[in-house]
Input
Amino acid sequence: MDRETPNIKKWIVFYPIYINSKKTVAEGRRISLSNACENPTCVEISDCCGHLKLPCAIEIDKAYPRDFMQRGRVRVLLKKEDGSLYNPAISSMEDGPLGTLCHLLGKQLMLHVAELVPRHPGRLKKQEPASTTSTAGPSKSSKSGRKKR
Output
């Protein structure tokens, strides 16, 4: 099994804060606010990477360096050992210098994952109870605020 799985230390690091719309660029967000999603988790990011057919590993014990209270990160492998991509949809550009290519691939991965996270099944289940309680809210406000005399 060790021969099949490469060393994850060489995989791309993906912190949830990179695509969090609640964070500023100074706090660590790496994509535009219009493309970011609200409070993603490592599990959601890992599931989205699995949906994109990318090998990934969750590291729960790791913390984001700028905010050590943000626990967890995801390691993602974009390229096979022969240099081909696991998912060609992640890259639609020509190969450039290695550092630039990895940076752009990581950016494209962030955009794809940020697009998929709001449609994650766990998020859809969380939003259903909130919508049922909001229908009960207007019935309370229909009462008059005045006291009877």
The CA atoms of residues 48 and 116 lie 6 Å apart. The two ends are 80 Å apart (CA to CA). The longest helix spans residues 121-141.
